[in-house]
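Friendly challenge for the regulars: who can give me the structure tokens for this chain first? No prize, just bragging rights.
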Amino acid sequence: MKSKILMGLAAIAMVAVLSSCGKKPQVEIDATNAAIEAAKVAEANVYLPAEFAAVQDSLNAVMAAIEAKEGKLFKGMAAEKEKLAAVTTLANEVAGKVAAKKDEIKKEAETLLNDIKNVVTENGKLVLKLPRGKEGAAVIEQIKADLSNVDAAVAEAQGAYDKGAFMDALNKIKAAKEKADGLNAEIKEALTKARIRF
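First reply, four minutes later:
Bragging rights claimed.
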């Protein structure tokens, strides 16, 4: 009788030990989430969006594996703990790369801001040389309106740059530069057709 009771207690103890080995690795999950949040604060999601998304996808895959195992009685979480550690390391690496990428984007935005200012200045001078004939006045007014929109976009990009939102500034300035270059080509084509030197 005693041996049956002892065997029963031993079996219960064994189940308890095995099931506790499979507890949800909350400490590791918290550490991984903290590393991802730190990467987000460093703006990895802005400056390294593909790498940041890969980190989040990796975490989602590990969490799915953990949830799948939670319903089982004997669930070892050693592999998931290792994967969480790897995701944490990856998040820290991505966060570490942000400063260099941000500096690269800052320099690119700075260069484009300087370039577009030259194009805007040239466009302002060239538009004054456009022929004013019957239809010319309406075309010139449209070009002036477009130039005004480019000026506003450049001011907006400069504002974003000044606030330190370099990626936002770069995106805005690229769009404005494309428009300014297009207007420049359009004005030069009109002047060439009118045989006006620029």
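The CA atoms of residues 182 and 188 lie 10 Å apart. Residues 102-193 form one domain. Your move, everyone else.
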